[in-house]
Design goal:
The protein contains 5 helices and 5 strands, in the order E-H-H-E-H-E-H-E-E-H. By secondary structure, the protein is an alpha/beta fold. The longest helix has 16 residues, at 130-145. The radius of gyration is 14 Å and the shape is globular. Bound molecules: 1,3,4-trihydroxy-5-OXO-cyclohexanecarboxylic acid.
C-alpha cells in the first residue's frame, strides 16, 4: 500500500464559486472525494491538502517525505511564481504530476510559464476536474509498476 497526496494551492478552496466559466462548478470537496474513492478503491492511501500560503505548501511537500509515494499538485498561481515550491520538490525527489483545471496555455502570457513543468513526471491542463482523476490513474499505474 502506497500513499498519494494531492496538494491544492491558493484560491482553489474557492472552487465552485470562483470564476466558474474557467474553473467549473465542482467544489474542492467533491474533487477530493472522487480522488479519494479512486485511490482507496485501488488499495492505496489518500490525503488531500490545501493552503493559500506558499510556506505552508513548501512545508507540506517537505513533510510528505518519506510517507508519500506520489504527489498530484495544482500549485494555482504559485505555478508561475514559486521557485521555493519548485526547490521543495527538487529537495524531496517525490515524483509528481502538475494539474491545471484551465488551459493555462490559452490564457494570459504570464500563465504559460510554469516552475514545475520541467521537473514533473507530466502535466495535465485544461481538462477541468477530470484532470485530477487522470493524474490519479497515472500515479497508480506508476506506483504499481514499482
Ligand atoms: C490554475 C491556473 C493558474 O494560472 C491560476 O492562478 C489558478 C488555477 C488552474 O487550475 O487552471 O489559480 O492553476
Amino acid at each position: 500500500m502506497s500513499k498519494i497526496t494531492v496538494i491544492h494551492g491558493p484560491n482553489l478552496n474557492l472552487l465552485g464559486i470562483r470564476e466558474p466559466s474557467l474553473y467549473g462548478s465542482e467544489t474542492l470537496e467533491t474533487i477530493n472525494q472522487r480522488l479519494g474513492e479512486a485511490i482507496e478503491s485501488a488499495g492505496h492511501e489518500f490525503e488531500a491538502y490545501q493552503s493559500n500560503a506558499e510556506h505552508e505548501l513548501v512545508d507540506k511537500v517537505q513533510s510528505s517525505k518519506p510517507d508519500t509515494a506520489f504527489i498530484i499538485i495544482n500549485p494555482g498561481a504559485f505555478t508561475h511564481t514559486s521557485i521555493a515550491l519548485r526547490d521543495a520538490f527538487l529537495g524531496v525527489q517525490i515524483p509528481f504530476i502538475e494539474v491545471h483545471l484551465s488551459n493555462v496555455d490559452s490564457r494570459e502570457e504570464f500563465r504559460r510559464q510554469s516552475f514545475f513543468a520541467d521537473i514533473a513526471v507530466g502535466s495535465i491542463i485544461g481538462l477541468g476536474p477530470q484532470g485530477y482523476l487522470l493524474a490519479a490513474q497515472a500515479a497508480l499505474s506508476r506506483i504499481e509498476a514499482v
